[in-house]
Amino acid sequence: DSGVTQTPKHLITATGQRVTLRCSPRSGDLSVYWYQQSLDQGLQFLIQYYNGEERAKGNILERFSAQQFPDLHSELNLSSLELGDSALYFCASSVTHRGEKLFFGSGTQLSVL
Amino acid sequence: AQSVAQPEDQVNVAEGNPLTVKCTYSVSGNPYLFWYVQYPNRGLQFLLKYITGDNLVKGSYGFEAEFNKSQTSFHLKKPSALVSDSALYFCAVRRTINTGGFKTIFGAGTRLFVKA
């Protein structure tokens, strides 16, 4: 068990809908990262937060947004969902923002029908 | 741009034999390189990292990786494979971005099958 908790584990929704994925980092970790894993794109970095502030941005679509709250948990919001958004979404955490060792959650499997 | 490449989609090895999973990198300056493993229905787990120092890095579960600057490679190795090593292995590089932040970029992954 990595200590990173992601909910829900599975999410099935329809095109055009909006969903929120939640991540609780390991105790003591200040940094949270979001990744998208799909068969065709592999593991894609979306965004990183450190102590509530955005620190790095990757291939995150404008329809997607994230935030990190004062208690350090993070949420990834996906809106106007398309079939192609179906993927496994991982959250990871680390102590610092330097990303020298990431601890991954078990992921949220999103299916857009 | 800083990136890593894993040239093999799949590696097959017999239990007890040595295994190598290949990774090459394209990095300006000193690379920060990593290996992670993903078991079915699980998130990625950190195996080892290279930042500086000895070219041979030892990690979890008996794995090690050799940093080779002249060949720009960071291959993952294990002297004797176990069936339980069967998993998806990712090489990764930490990239510094212009805002002073960092992001970890992963390779496409190599699936390792260890046959009993």
Notes on the structure:
The complex is a heterodimer of chains A (113) and B (116). Chain A is built from no helices and eleven strands. By secondary structure, chain A is mainly β. In chain A, the strands form two sheets. In chain A, strands 2, 4, 5, 6, 9, 10 and 11 form a seven-stranded mixed sheet that branches. In chain A, strands 1-3-8-7 form a four-stranded antiparallel sheet, with no helix packed on it. In chain A, a hairpin with a 3-residue loop joins β4 and β5. Chain B is mainly β. Chain B has no helices and twelve strands. Chain B has strands at residues 3-5, 10-14, 19-21, 24-26, 33-38, 44-50, 56-58, 64-68, 73-78, 87-96, 102-106, 110-115. In chain B, strands 2, 5, 6, 10, 11 and 12 form a six-stranded mixed sheet that branches. Chain B has a four-stranded antiparallel sheet with strand order 3-9-8-7, with no helix packed on it. In chain B, strands 1-4 form a two-stranded antiparallel sheet. In chain B, a hairpin with a 5-residue loop joins β7 and β8. The radius of gyration of chain B is 14 Å and the shape is globular. Chain B starts with a strand and ends with a strand. The model of chain B has no long low-confidence stretch (mean pLDDT 93).
Give the helix/strand layout.
The complex is a heterodimer of chains A (113) and B (116).
Chain A: E1 5-7, E2 10-13, E3 19-24, E4 31-38, E5 42-50, E6 53-57, E7 64-68, E8 74-78, E9 87-94, E10 103-104, E11 108-112
Parallel strand pairs in A: 2-11
Antiparallel strand pairs in A: 1-3, 3-8, 4-5, 4-9, 5-6, 7-8, 9-10, 9-11
Chain B: E1 3-5, E2 10-14, E3 19-21, E4 24-26, E5 33-38, E6 44-50, E7 56-58, E8 64-68, E9 73-78, E10 87-96, E11 102-106, E12 110-115
Parallel strand pairs in B: 2-12
Antiparallel strand pairs in B: 1-4, 3-9, 5-6, 5-10, 7-8, 8-9, 10-11, 10-12
Which residues of chain B form runs of ≥5 with pLDDT under 50? none
Mean residue pLDDT of chain A = 95
Q: What pattern of helices and strands is seen along the backbone of chain B?
A: EEEEEEEEEEEE
Most extensive contact:
A-B, 24 and 23 residues
Order of helices and strands of chain A: EEEEEEEEEEE
